[in-house]
Amino acid sequence: MAPSTARLSPSRGKGYIVAMDGPAGVGKSTVGQCVAKRLGYHFINTGEMFRALTWKALEDGVDVEDQQAVVRLAGRLKWEFRPTEGGVTLKTFIDGQGVTVQIREERVSANSSAVAANPGVRRLLCRLQRRLGRRGAIVMEGRDITTHVFPNADFKFYLDASAEERARRRYRQLKASGMPAELSKIHAAILQRDLNDLKRKINPLSQAADAMVIDSTHLSMRQVAEKMLRMIRSKA
Ligand code: C5P
Which of the listed residues 58, 112, 118, 121 should we mutate to test ligand 1's pocket, taking the one with most ligand atoms within 8 A of CB? Predict the structure, then answer.
């Protein structure tokens, strides 16, 4: 299919808000970037913001369980979102520093749930996310984008896939990049992350009643992106 870069006629500002949620490892970023690129929109992965703050807290020796200290740190930082990767993806910079590589460290993954459970942090990051979406023309993914950050988004999607399939995908990714990987451990980590997301007291992961649910267990990322684009174009 020939890729179309034609912009949709905007309902606000320069274009629509496309909100996506779903569990860890479901492919939201791959799909979201693809959809944003095809629409000529920006893409933002909000998990990066929580990870960036977690990394900074660990670097600065701030206890991630000390909620007030983490909120103070978040408020002191200069947050910027600069376009990279062909101008589509907005990457998180804190105090002028790009953190793409550091935020994937294991210690960041292990501590990010505590930071994501902090109400003050969520309020601050939600404000930043809403500011990024103010002019539209954005695809934003996370855990609470359809339910809390943009409950009135023009398009809402909830991506899902079985934990087994998400673990297999992660396993294949790691193997392909020559990294050591153990399927049973990856599966256990995915189940733990699901639990953390679902049991969080504020803004837990949940399906918005009006979101289009796409189960990608038996679909490729490309097929998921095509489904979303068809839906957006049919309603736009
Ligand atoms: O998606 P990713 O695993 O990179 O997210 C990092 C952390 O931020 C996770 O703990 C996830 O639950 C949390 N998160 C969140 N709300 C979002 C995006 C991510 O609580 N909108």
Answer: 112
